[in-house]
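Weekly structure sync, notes
Attendees: PL (lead), two postdocs, one rotation student
Agenda item 3: pending single-chain targets
PL asked that the sequence for the first pending target be pasted directly into the notes so everyone works from the same version. It is reproduced below exactly as submitted, 361 residues in total.
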Amino acid sequence: MRSISVMVKPASSACNMRCAYCFYSDVANTRQTRCHGVMKPEMAELLAQRLAEAVDFAGEVTISFQGGEPTLAGLDWFRRFAELMEAYPGVTPHWSLQTNGTLLDRDWCAFLAEHDFLVGLSLDGPRSLTDRFRQDDRGEGAYERAMRSLEMLYDADVATNVLTVVTRQLAQKPKQLMQFYLSHDIVDVQLIPCLPPLDGTDDGMSLRPAEYRSFYLGFFRAWKRAFQHEQLVHVNLFENVLSMLEGYAPNQCGTIGLCTLQYVIESNGDVYPCDFYCLDKYRMGNLIDTQLRVMTSSEASRHFLDEEDCRRAPCNTCPYVGICHGGCRRQNVCYLSDGSCAHRDVLAEIAPTLAQMYELY
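Predicted structure, written out during the meeting:
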């Protein structure tokens, strides 16, 4: 391989927050070992070696740090890992970090800027919405700390996008969410549908097709009005749809009609195929005794890749199936059933409108 992308969980599922909708907490609770703690120095050294091996010591490695809360590993851990990767002169690392932002300070931001990190900061809009579900174990909301971190990241010129989990409650306020972004000069956004638990129970937060449809249509219309007033907010879904309309390959996981291996690396060296499926039955191996390229042909990876097609009955006659391909098999529960598809309704409005807007402007 000349390049590889991996997701690393340096603090496993450990987190200083207790977000009510956290999907990784739900995943970790199903495993025999819920949390492996912070990655030990010897495992970090082995991880750097395995990544260099994967590209034959001469290629590009994209490393996304997630959790839990990855910054719980500590700034010194990240500095040391960057040094380990830099010890391989033929390897070019590209870095990203997904964080709740509650532990960042100016030293963190200086490090992130120095190494050209892309940071995804979790923030669900105004205080009332963010603090409703994003609280620590003392019941204190994340909003104030996340907003302070956003300001520090901007001041340090760190490339930052805001990650917003669209709950059933937030779905009722698409216009307010867009206004929040505009009023705080937030110009890069990823909207993430709130998923139900793995057991399928109704948690009162996860999106259902009706909320999915109403939110994305309402948000798109608010986004369009802002665009027409030369206020551009980059939204992952809209830009991915536009790029595919222009003939480019999808750049968002869950839009190619099949699953691929993400190489999610837990802090003890266990490797899984997907962040949504870091479950014991999908464990592909461990860095201690197996190279990443060998894991590609493991029984667990084949089992994961060969599982059910994402498509359902509505996909058979959908004019937009070439854009979403049935979606992600973990996420499409929010919009797709055997009888109907809310995402189709969304694409029916946004796809032709996007194409026309960008031709005019």
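Discussion points:
- The chain has a mean pLDDT of 94.
- Strands lie at 3-8, 59-65, 91-99, 118-122, 159-166, 188-193, 234-235, 264-265, 270-272, 285-286.
Action: rotation student to compare against the earlier draft before next sync.
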